[in-house]
Amino acid sequence: MTLEFTVPNMACSACAETITKAVMAIDPAAKIAADPQTKQVKIETGAEATAVKNAITDAGYTVA
User: Fold this and answer.
1) Domain count, the chain
2) Which residue of 2, 20, 34, 41 is 20 to 30 Å from 60, comparing CA positions?
3) How far apart are CA 48 and CA 12, in angstroms?
């Protein structure tokens, strides 16, 4: 499934990398595109949306 989230406090490429690592921790096969300029994160994953959202939140980011 494809998930799309807005992450308002993703400010730079390091933030995008942190978010990518957080999602990969729960689904190593996930494909993640995180864009700090648009604040959008697009994820192709088999994991539940809630689990992905929680992983991003646990990494210190807000998911809108």
Assistant:
1) 1
2) 2
3) 26
Structure tokens that stand for 62 in this block? 């807000």
Question: Quick one: DSSP state of residue 37?
Answer: T
pTM: 0.94
The CATH number of whichever domain residue 48 belongs to comes to 3.30.70.100
**Tens-place pLDDT, residues 12-32:** 999 999 999 999 999 999 999
Q: Which residue has the tokens 């942190």?
A: 18
63 is a domain residue = no
Asked if 20 and 34 count as a contact pair (C-beta separation under 8 A), the reply is yes
**Enclosing domain of residue 6:** 2-58
Asked if residue 44 belongs to a domain, the reply is yes
- Model pLDDT, residue 40: 98
